[in-house]
């Protein structure tokens, strides 16, 4: 905030914002924070996997969608629900958002065999294209993180009706995987 | 312009801290490799702490300043974070730095110590790597290379090698790394490439560059090809497989079986 507070209007309800996912791995626990449409997936091996995804932006009550080249919410509508109770939350100019982030902790040494973090450019695989997180982890395990980005692009290219989704056909995509190996 | 960036970082020894550090964003790639401490360091924080603080300080500054200026300013900043430590200790924590910074249509690179940067312009692969450290302590290095990994004589020889290395660190005629003196940056290898001439690039710590330099599994062009086809993780996986095939360092004499390994690969298209 301090870096651009003197030149920009940070009280603007559409001031630049970002989704975020943070994972902190300690010897005896994993902590996470997710806000906005990023995801954290915690793989506990045989015990299964758990995903933490903040999809409040997709479940806004009576949200009007503007039909255009790309289906989207109007900026005027977003201004009424972004970083507002009952709306959705992103990292923007107010630290209050931290109170509304999805946070959690899982104990264990190690608490997980691997943890995957991704932006919504990747979670399209589960949200749009019917992949399970298990599928995502399996492809990553056999062919690495770049294979997930390629799978997203392939799914997007072969989507015959990309305009049915809210948002653009191709989004920036980021994936990070931390694997815990035996000491 | 579309850029695909892939980074892999893997500890060499699960029982020890990872002393490599990586940052990847659309306009900055930074790889740090902390020097293994074999002697006292005079610092209570350790090498992993040092590389993390130095890395974050460089990232903060690189949005405003050139790589050389960012590294030069970060060195005294990190020194200022631990004045209670003996920063004049000859074994004070240090790190090699390899970086690429994209500003508009210019790609700036900096190499300080033994992190390698490879720039593929289509007609040639330009590799920026600083081998000055491996030209120091040559008699001690040769002696250490004679012994298998794990042998007591190896540890003794490595300690003598380290002492000789430290005597040459940040000295004219020796080698240069980031530790407490910002003047080391004057000895970094720096340069610029036009973004539209660059097809792909890689930044590798020496633990990953073993695939090319030490083990000769690939030449630099082949290593870039492998990372493009199969990813940065695959390069490190193959390094680990080679290491496991020679755990004592008989075929490929080296200081430790596996080193922390970092590989960042960038593909530019469109």
How is this structure best summarized?
Chain A has 183 residues and is α+β, with helices and mostly antiparallel strands.
SSE layout and pairing:
The complex is a heterodimer of chains A (183) and B (270).
Chain A (H helix, E strand, L loop, with lengths): L19 E7 L2 E7 L3 E5 L5 E5 L11 E2 L5 E2 L1 H7 L20 E6 L6 E5 L1 H8 L5 H11 L1 H13 L17 E5 L4
Antiparallel strand pairs in A: 1-2, 2-7, 3-4, 3-8, 5-6, 8-9
Helix pairs in contact in A: 2-4, 3-4
Chain B lengths: L1 E9 L9 E6 L2 E7 L12 H16 L4 H15 L13 E9 L2 E7 L3 E5 L4 E4 L9 H8 L6 H17 L20 E6 L5 E5 L1 H4 L10 H11 L1 H14 L15 E9 L1
Antiparallel strand pairs in B: 1-10, 2-3, 3-4, 4-5, 5-8, 6-7, 6-9, 9-10
What does this 3D model show about the protein?
Chain A is α+β, with helices and mostly antiparallel strands and 183 residues long. In chain A, 21% of the residues lie in helices and 24% in strands. Chain A contains 4 helices and 9 strands, in the order E-E-E-E-E-E-H-E-E-H-H-H-E. In chain A, strands 4-3-8-9 form a 4-stranded antiparallel beta sheet. In chain A, strands 1-2-7 form a 3-stranded antiparallel beta sheet, with no helix packed on it. In chain A, strands 5-6 form a two-stranded antiparallel sheet. Chain A starts with 19 loop residues before the first strand and ends with a strand. In chain A, 25% of the residues are buried. In chain B, helix 3 runs antiparallel to helix 4 and helix 6 crosses helix 7. Chain B has 7 helices and 10 strands. Chain B is 31% helix and 25% strand. In chain B, strands 1-10-9-6-7 form a 5-stranded antiparallel beta sheet. Chain B is α+β, with helices and mostly antiparallel strands and 270 residues long. In chain B, a hairpin with a 2-residue loop joins strand 2 and strand 3. The longest helix of chain B has 17 residues. The radius of gyration of chain B is 18 Å and the shape is globular.
């Amino acid at each position: 905030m301090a870096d651009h507070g003197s030149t920009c209007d940070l009280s603007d309800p559409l001031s630049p914002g970002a989704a975020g996912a943070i994972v902190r791995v300690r010897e005896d626990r994993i902590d996470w924070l997710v806000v906005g449409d990023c995801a954290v997936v915690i793989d506990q091996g045989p015990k299964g996997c758990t995903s933490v995804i903040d999809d409040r932006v997709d479940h806004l009550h009576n949200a009007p969608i503007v039909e255009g080249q790309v289906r989207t919410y109007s900026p005027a509508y977003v201004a009424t629900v972004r970083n507002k109770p009952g709306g959705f939350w992103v990292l923007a100019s107010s630290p209050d958002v931290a109170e509304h982030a999805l946070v959690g902790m899982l104990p264990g040494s190690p608490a997980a065999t691997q943890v995957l973090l991704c932006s919504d450019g990747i979670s399209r695989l589960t949200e749009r294209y019917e992949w399970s997180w298990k599928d995502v982890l399996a492809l990553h395990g056999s062919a690495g993180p770049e294979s997930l980005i390629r799978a997203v692009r392939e799914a997007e290219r072969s989507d015959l009706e990309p305009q049915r989704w809210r948002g653009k056909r191709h989004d920036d995509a980021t994936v990070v995987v931390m694997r815990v190996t035996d000491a | 312009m579309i850029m695909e960036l892939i980074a892999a970082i893997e500890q060499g020894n699960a029982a020890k801290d990872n002393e490599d550090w990586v940052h990847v964003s659309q306009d900055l790639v930074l790889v740090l490799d902390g020097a293994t401490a074999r002697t006292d360091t005079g610092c209570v924080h350790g090498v992993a702490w040092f590389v993390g603080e130095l890395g974050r300080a460089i990232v903060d500054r690189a949005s405003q300043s050139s790589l050389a200026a960012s590294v030069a300013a970060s060195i005294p900043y990190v020194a200022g974070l631990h004045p209670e430590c003996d920063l004049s200790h000859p074994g004070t924590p240090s790190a090699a730095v390899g970086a690429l910074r994209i500003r508009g249509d210019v790609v700036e690179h900096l190499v300080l110590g033994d992190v390698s940067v490879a720039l593929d312009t289509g007609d040639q692969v330009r590799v920026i790597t600083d081998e000055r450290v491996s030209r120091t302590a040559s008699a001690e290095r040769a002696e250490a290379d004679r012994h298998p990994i794990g042998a007591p004589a190896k540890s003794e020889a490595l300690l003598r090698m380290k002492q000789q290395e430290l005597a040459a660190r940040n000295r004219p005629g020796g080698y240069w790394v980031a530790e407490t003196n910002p003047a080391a940056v004057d000895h970094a290898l720096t340069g610029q490439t036009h973004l539209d001439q660059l097809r792909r690039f890689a930044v590798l710590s020496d633990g990953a560059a073993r695939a090319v330099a030490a083990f000769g599994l690939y030449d630099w062009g082949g290593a870039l090809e492998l990372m493009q086809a199969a990813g940065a993780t695959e390069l490190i996986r193959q390094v680990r497989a080679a290491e496991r095939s020679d755990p004592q360092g008989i075929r490929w004499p080296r200081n430790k079986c596996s080193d922390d390994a970092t590989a960042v690969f960038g593909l530019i298209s469109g």
